[in-house]
Amino acid sequence: MIRSVLVSLTLIITTSAPVAYARGTGDLGLVIERASGSIQIIETTNNSSLGRVEGLGDLSHASAVYSRDEQYAYIFGRDGGLTKVDIIAQKIVKRTLQAGNSIGGAISQDGSLVAVSNYTPGGVKIFDSGTLELVANIPATYGDEKKTSKVIGLVDAPGKKFVFSLWDANEIWVADVSQPAKPQIEKFKNIGRNPYDALISPDGRYYIAGLFGEDGMALLDLWNLNAGVKRILDNYGKGEQKLPVYKMPHLEGWAMAGTYAFVPAVGRHEVLVIDTQTWTEAGRIKVHGQPIFVMARPDGRNIWVNFAIPNNDTLQVIDTQSLEVIKTMQPGKGVLHMEFEPRGEEVWASVRDKDQLVIYDTETFEELKRLPAEKPSGIFSTTRAHKIGL
Amino acid sequence: MIRSVLVSLTLIITTSAPVAYARGTGDLGLVIERASGSIQIIETTNNSSLGRVEGLGDLSHASAVYSRDEQYAYIFGRDGGLTKVDIIAQKIVKRTLQAGNSIGGAISQDGSLVAVSNYTPGGVKIFDSGTLELVANIPATYGDEKKTSKVIGLVDAPGKKFVFSLWDANEIWVADVSQPAKPQIEKFKNIGRNPYDALISPDGRYYIAGLFGEDGMALLDLWNLNAGVKRILDNYGKGEQKLPVYKMPHLEGWAMAGTYAFVPAVGRHEVLVIDTQTWTEAGRIKVHGQPIFVMARPDGRNIWVNFAIPNNDTLQVIDTQSLEVIKTMQPGKGVLHMEFEPRGEEVWASVRDKDQLVIYDTETFEELKRLPAEKPSGIFSTTRAHKIGL
Hints:
Two copies of one chain form a homodimer. Chain A is mainly beta. Chain A has one helix at 2-16; strands spanning 28-33, 38-43, 48-53, 63-66, 72-76, 81-86, 91-97, 101-107, 113-120, 123-128, 134-139, 141-142, 147-148, 151-157, 161-166, 171-176, 184-188, 195-200, 206-211, 217-221, 229-232, 255-257, 260-264, 270-275, 280-286, 291-296, 302-307, 315-319, 324-329, 335-340, 346-351, 356-361, 367-372, 376-381. Chain A has a domain at 98-232: Methylamine Dehydrogenase, Chain H (7 Propeller). Chain A is 4% helix and 49% strand. At the A-B interface, helix 1 of A face helix 1 of B.
C-alpha cells in the first residue's frame, strides 16, 4: 500500500517536473503565431520546437523583449496586451490589457522596467518588469490644443532612458527613467513630418527616425543632446516619382557593417547605404522588391532582406564589401521576419503562408530544416536580452 | 503513517532539487579563484554569489568560455586542465589534463568545438564540446628543424575558424575546422617578432597580434586573407627608451568606440588609440601605470583600465569623446580583471589582495557592493557565449 502510493507519487512528481526543468536559456527563442494568438518556444542548438504557449490575444504585428536573465519574455500585442511568459516553464506569468492599440515595447538597460508605445491612447506606459504594475504613464500630448499623438519607434538607451517618436506631433522624446515614477522628458520638436519608425545604433548612441511625410531622416546623437535633431539624407527621394507603399518597412535593429548602415528605402526597390561618418548617402542597392527588414548578420559581412507584397516570397543577401546581391532564395509566400542565431552561423525565417519556419546556413545558404508553425511572424532570440535597443 | 512518509519524501525531493533548479542563465557569470582552484558562480540581477565549484587545479591565468545555451562553462587552467562545469547544477561535468602548460581557449561559432592553446607541447588541441573528446591536434611545428612553438592569442572567428599566433615562430595561423578531424590551415609567416597576445574585432573581421620583440602590431583582415599580414603602428615605440615591463598586457577583447580602437601600450603608462579606418595611431592617453586590460563599456562611451604592479590598486575611466581620464578609483591592491554586466550598467572588478569583488555603477561610478571571493582574478559573464572572439 505504502509502496504503491510512493510509486504513484514519484510518477506524479516526475511527470509534473518537466514544466520547470533546468536548462540554459542562451539558445532559446520564441516565434509569434499571429493567427492563433500563441507563441512557440524554440531552441537553436538542435533547431527544434520546445512547446507552445497560448492565450496571448491579437498578435498581429507583435514583438517581444526579454528579461536580463533570459527566463521571461514580454510580448507586446497589437490589441494593447502585454504578456509576461516564463519560457522555461512555458506558461503565462502575468497578462495585462494596458491600452487599446499598441505598437511595440522595450526593456530598460537594467531590466527593471518594461515600456510600451501606444496608438490609443497615444503615449508610453511603463511597468515594473517583475509585477507588471504600472509605474509611470507618459501621455504623448502636444501642441496648444493638447492633442494626443500615436507613439512609434520606442527603444531603450543606456543610462536608463527610453527614446520614442510622435507620429502626429513630429517630435522625438527622450525619457530618463532613473526615478521611474518621475520620468524626466526632453522633447525635440519639428523633427520632420510623420516619423513612422526608428532605430538606434548598436552602441545606443544614434537614434534615427524614418519620415513618412517627407524626404530624409531625423538623427539624434544621444551623447550630445544639446546639438538637437539633425536632418540627414535630405536628397533621398527628392524629385523622384513616388511608388505606392505596399507595407511600411521596419527600422528595427540597425544593419551596420564597418561604418556603413543599411536601411530599407520606403516604397522603392532599394536598400539605402548610409556612411555613418558623414551621415550622407553612400549608395543604393537594387533589390527584388520593397524591402521590409534589412538585417545584418552578426559579423556584418552580409545583409539579409525580405520584401513587401507582391514580392514577399523572396529573401535576398547582400555582400557588404561589394554592395551587391549575392544570393536570392524563395522559401515561400509570406516571408515576414528573420532572426540570426546568436553568433550568426544560421538564420531562421518565418514563412506565414506555408505555416513554416525555415532555417538556413548563412555561409553556404543551404536550407537546413523546416519546422511547422501556425502563421508565424516575428522571431525573437534570447540574445536580444543583452543588446542595447532591441 | 502514509502521510508522514509522503511528507518525508516530499522533503527529500525538495531538498535534493536545488542542484538543478530552473532559472534563466543570461545573468550568470563565474569568477576564477586562483589560489584555491575554485570558481564562484555569480548572478548580476541582484548581485550575489550563488555557489562555488572546487577541484579545478591550477587556475593562475585561467580563462573561460561558455556553451551557446549558457549552461556550461569551459575553464582553461594554466596547468593544461580543461574543465567543463554545469553552472546551473554547480558541478564539474568533465575534466581533462590535456597539456602541460596552457594559455587560454576558445569555442567555435556553432558551439560544437572547444580549442585550447598550449605552450607545452606547443600547439592547439580541439575537443568536442559535449564529451571533451579530442577531435583534432594541431602541433605548432615550424621551420626546417621542425621545432614547436608556444601558441598564444587563440580566438574563434566566423565560418567555424580558429585563429592563433606562434610566439617562437613569428607566425599567425588560420584553421578552418568545418571538418573537425581535418583542419585546413593557412599560415602567415614573418609577421613580426614574438607575438605575445592577440585580439579580434567584435565583428570577427580583423585579427591583431601585439609584438613583444619589436615595434608595431600585425594585422590580418580575415575577409581578405589574400592580402596577407599588414604591419601597423610601426612608429609605436620607435626611438623611445623602453621601460621595464612589469606584466604583459592583455589584448583580450577589443575596446572599440566608433572607429577608434584602444589598446594597452606595452611597458608605457599609456593607452594607444588606433584609427581603424587608416590603421594609424590616433593618439595616446596618459594613464596611471602600465595598462593591463583596456575594456570598453558595451556602449563604447567609456574605457576602463587596470594596471600592472606597482599601480595595480587603481582603476581609471577614459571618456572616448574627449580621450581624457575622467575618473580614478582605488578599490584596493591587486585589481586583476573587470567584467561589464551585459548591457553595461554596472561593472565587476576583482581585487585579489582584499579577497573581494567590487561592483560599480558605470554612470555614477558609485561603489554599489563588495562580495567576498578567494584571491579572485578573471570574471566571465555568460553574455560571452553570444559574442564573436570572446
